[in-house]
Design a protein that fits this description.
Layout lengths: L5 E6 L4 H16 L3 E5 H5 L7 E3 L1 H7 L2 E6 L1 H11 L6 E5 L14 H9 L3 E15 L2 E8 L2 E5 L7 E7 L2 E8 L1 E5 L7 H4 L11 E7 L9 E4 L4 E5 L8 E4 L2 E5 L5 E16 L4 H8 L9
Parallel strand pairs: 1-2, 1-4, 2-3, 4-5
Antiparallel strand pairs: 6-7, 6-17, 8-11, 8-15, 9-10, 9-14, 11-12, 12-13, 14-17, 15-16
């Protein structure tokens, strides 16, 4: 396994828990003789840190490992920024759930020692690119690690749209919207909307209708290389909204369309050797433990 020499540190600003873990990380990494690069926002909350400081994008170019300190939201932001640099990412959990940031604070030095000694597993996960079109011209774009969500933008208001997969018409629908999720996002908003849990190894997308106006609308799982196209009906009285991981908000007009497809760059995630997706699900989703030993 590759050993790392230049390590970038990024995290969620405004959290004392994140700052506490950054202090521990800085001390530990410097003691190992590694070059540590701190993201600008983190440098502002760590006075007299004595480290190199850089933007997130430059960290992606400079480092051969990036450690993200925070919750799953912090990892989502890091994924969108860093995927194009092919730098592997490791997560320290300082959030609530921790599906993506799987090292706990009390395990930090122990698990990090294993990783830096070359004892780790890697996992490649894909992201989504989204482009909005009006009269055939692109008017907005975004990228997502979890999901692209098409919604009415207003509570209890339905929109009409048509869905195409690889240019094949699938259905027209009246609903609150549609969630297009990666396997990574299948344990997030998609799960709340009734979508299936997908193992991160799957090369698949799931389309989850949001409160459809028909009992026969169900989630559809398709090949991960599929191109999804959504066309908004001309009769819509409201302006639908498209969001990527809850960010990159793009407002549509009647007749606009949005395409969603796999991003050409993947994110490499690093995990300790004992990483187990099903164990994480048992813990975070409160599944039952073993009955028989």
């Amino acid at each position: 396994m590759e050993k790392f020499r230049n390590v970038g540190l990024i995290g969620r600003a405004g959290s004392q828990e994140v700052i506490d873990s950054l202090i521990v990380l800085k001390r530990y990494l410097v003691a190992r003789g590694l070059t540590v690069v701190l993201e600008q926002e983190m440098a502002e909350v760590l006075p007299e840190h004595g480290l190199q400081v850089s933007t997130r994008e430059c960290i992606g170019e400079m480092c051969d490992l990036v450690i993200v300190v925070g919750g799953d939201g912090s990892m989502l932001g890091a994924a969108r920024s860093l995927a194009r640099f092919s730098v592997p990412v490791l997560g320290i959990n300082r959030g609530r759930l921790g599906f993506l940031t799987d090292i706990l604070p009390h395990e930090l030095e122990w698990k990090l020692t294993e990783v830096l000694d070359g004892n780790y597993t890697t996992e490649r996960r894909f992201l989504l690119d989204t482009i909005m079109y009006r009269n055939g011209e692109p008017i907005g774009e975004g990228s997502a690690f979890n999901d692209v969500v098409v919604s009415s933008g207003e509570a209890a208001r339905m929109i009409e749209f048509e869905t195409y997969i690889n240019d094949q018409f699938v259905y027209s629908q009246r609903s609150d919207g549609l969630i297009v999720s990666t396997p990574t996002g299948s344990t997030a908003y998609s799960l709340s909307g009734g979508g299936p849990i997908m193992h991160p190894d799957l090369d698949a997308l799931v389309l989850v209708p949001m409160f459809p106006h028909t009992l026969t609308s169900r989630p559809i799982v398709v090949n991960g290389n599929s191109e999804i196209k959504i066309v908004f009906g001309m009769e819509n009285q409201i302006f639908p909204v498209v969001t990527c991981d809850g960010h990159d908000k793009i407002e549509a007009e009647p007749g606009d369309s949005v395409t969603i497809k796999k991003k050409p760059h993947e994110l490499t995630m690093i995990h300790p050797l004992d990483h187990n997706f099903y164990a994480i699900c048992r813990d975070k989703l409160q599944w039952g433990n073993r009955l028989f030993e």
